[in-house]
Amino acid sequence: MPMPQRRMKVGKKEQHLWQKRDSAGSGQKALNLVRIVSELPNEKHAVYGALDKWTAWETEFPLIAAAKALRILRKRGQWLRVIQVAKWMLSKGQGATMGTYDTLLLAFDKDHRADEAESLWNMILHTHTRSISKRLFSRMISLYDHHDMPNKIIEVFADMEELGVRPDEDTVRRIASAFQRVGQDDKQKLVLKKYLSKWKYIHFKGERVRVRRDAWYESGSTN
Predict the structure, then answer these.
(1) 203 has pLDDT over 70
(2) Rounded to two decimals, what is the model's pTM?
(3) How confident is the model at residue 214 (pLDDT cuts 50, 70, 90)?
(4) What is the pLDDT of residue 133?
(5) Half-sphere exposure of 200 toward its Cβ, with a 13 Å CA cutoff?
(6) Structurally, how many domains does the chain consist of?
(7) Any domain includes 74
(8) What share of the chain has pLDDT > 70, as a percent?
(9) Using alpha carbons only, how large is the chain's radius of gyration in Å?
């Protein structure tokens, strides 16, 4: 009995060490990629050429490292580089996930590229349809809200309703505000009534208290 127990411990230890080396390796590749793109001019051909060279000796596409690089660039607010790297990944048929789309839409928002965001969104909508996450719908509505495009918000909301995706509270308020801005106060109130609970929780004197939203509805506030 003692011998098998020792083997199991060694096996677990070896597996753990292998996973750590793999993680460290992809992390170093990601940092290398960030360094490479950060030093390049903004020309698409220069960036894509460098990215192609980065993968030239790889037997498989380094998807984990590329995804980590995207997260680093996003955290640093290097939105143009996020767009370039994400577009390059997708052009290679890699990283077509809701996470990549979310990051790319955020970068389009930050870099004031609403038209490109709309093109990407239409592709996502037609390609993935019923697998689109609530988070991605919220991202698109937030983007349109930042760029003062209430009619586009209403279009996205219509797709959410058709697909049975229930918006979160922040998104509900953006949708309601969009209806108000286009002069459809009746639909604004319907949205608030349908999607916001009649109750909300507030902290009062150190306790969590449930209160009715009636006054909030009557005021028509979307703040």
Answers:
(1) no
(2) 0.77
(3) low
(4) 92
(5) 13
(6) 1
(7) yes
(8) 78
(9) 23
Structure confidence at residue 42 as a pLDDT band (50, 70, 90): confident
Does 130 reside within a domain? Answer: no
Looking at residue 131, the DSSP 8-state letter turns out to be: G
Structural domain contains residue 138: no
Which domain range does residue 61 map to?
Answer: 1-96
Which residue reads 């209806």 in tokens? 179
User: Residue 156: CB partners within 8 Å, gap ≥ 6?
Assistant: 121, 137, 140, 141, 144
Residue whose tokens read 């208290």: 209
Between the CA of residue 150 and those of 63, 75, 87, 109, 195, what are the distances in Å? 36, 29, 27, 15, 18
Q: CA 189, CA 175: separation in Å to the nearest integer? A: 11
Please check whether residue 52 lies inside any domain of the structure.
yes
Q: What are phi and psi of 132, to 5 degrees?
A: -70, 130
